[in-house]
Write a structure and sequence with these properties.
Chain lengths: 85, 151, 151, 85
């Protein structure tokens, strides 16, 4: 097992009371859907947000869909709706 | 094209002067500055607007918007400077400028860049008040505006 | 409201800084600067754009436009500075700014003031080239734009 | 008879090769229509422009129609289409 660090951006960090979370992952990785499920179980306050399609997953600075597989060492982040300007 | 992610206060007047030097003979220079509000919707005092960004993706999202505006409106020059971090009331959050041969293109390009920044630039922001944090997300109007550009 | 008829070169950056101080807590500041072109439609070199105005009526016409924009778009502040006399290529002919609580009102107000200035502000202007004077009048598009605001 | 000064603005001055023109007027004045007619006769190059409804008359800093009566001492001007911005 290796460790995957997941960043929680914007209000997600407040909901989980953590800006980043670490997960144990097997060598063949986890899907983004699995990561969402894990976060929902670990942080009940995050469940609604993290399972919403309004919250997007970002891997190594690219937006990915729920089937994407992530492995230890990759930069994974979840983005609530963006708000610039 | 000039696109800057700034972590210190920005000066719209200096940025307008820079954009003016980049007009390349074009006759029209439009700009928009977003300023941090002093009071929230319910009238409470805002002590700061705090913006978060994400690594290189934030600057890349700003560059994509400036490049799209340059192509779409045949701009001579596009400029976006966006703050990240803690912005005090009255300080500029964002400065956008466009130069073009004609005024409609310059003004439309500024509106277009602002509309896309609101919903597509990689930022999250909250108002800091005596009562705590209040996260700000784009409104239905903001979403409708950005959709209208792709019709 | 600040409305100025200037007979000497104007500095858009300084005027933007002034408009920013007049935002009165409003979050949106839009501006437009019209710059004198270096080349005419047929590519010939323009040595100057020369503007003529008529007594007090010119300033009054500018004030009427700024006041109408302030009322129509509920502006916190409207600013128009317009040159008269000989304007050299690259110099600013006109600077317009509007501050409002929201960006659409500020940007629309700037477009509105420019559209009305083109056809209703009491100025006449010509381009000075090696071949002589070329008087500039509003185009059909300019007339259509100002009509659209009254629909 | 007294003298009325009429200013020609913008391109009208070039057409007439004069920025201002003086007319003799009787004490009961002249209509703007009469002034237009006089200018057209005096400056043939001005005829088309000065008789066009695109050229407006201004008396003492107010736009007036062709029936307005002007007297010596008033500030009379003709405006070709305006062009600011």
């Amino acid at each position: 097992m290796a460790v995957l660090t997941v960043e929680l951006c914007g209000r997600l960090a407040d909901m989980a009371a953590a800006a980043a979370v670490t997960l144990d992952v097997a060598e063949d990785g986890l899907s983004i859907a699995d990561v969402r499920g894990h976060l929902a179980r670990t942080f009940p306050a995050l469940t609604d947000a993290i399972t919403s399609d309004k919250v997007r997953a970002c891997v190594d600075e690219a937006i990915v869909d729920d089937r994407a597989i992530v492995r230890a060492g990759q930069a994974v982040a979840f983005f609530p709706p963006l708000s610039g300007g | 094209m000039a696109v800057v992610l700034a972590t210190e206060p920005i000066n719209p007047a200096i940025l307008l002067a820079e954009a003016e030097t980049q007009s390349n003979g074009a006759g029209a220079l439009a700009s928009f500055t977003g300023l941090a509000r002093r009071a929230g919707k319910d009238g409470d005092t805002i002590t700061a607007l705090v913006l978060e960004h994400y690594r290189g993706l934030t600057l890349a999202s700003m560059q994509a918007i400036a490049a799209a505006a340059t192509a779409r409106f045949a701009l001579a020059h596009a400029h976006i400077t966006h703050r990240s971090g803690r912005v005090l009331p009255g300080e500029a959050i964002v400065f956008v400028a466009a130069t073009a041969p004609h005024r409609a293109a310059a003004l439309d390009a500024v509106a277009y860049m602002m509309d896309r920044l609101k919903t597509e630039a990689v930022f999250w922001k909250y108002e800091e008040t005596a009562g705590g944090k209040r996260w700000i997300e784009p409104t239905e109007t903001d979403h409708a505006r950005v959709t209208a550009w792709s019709l």
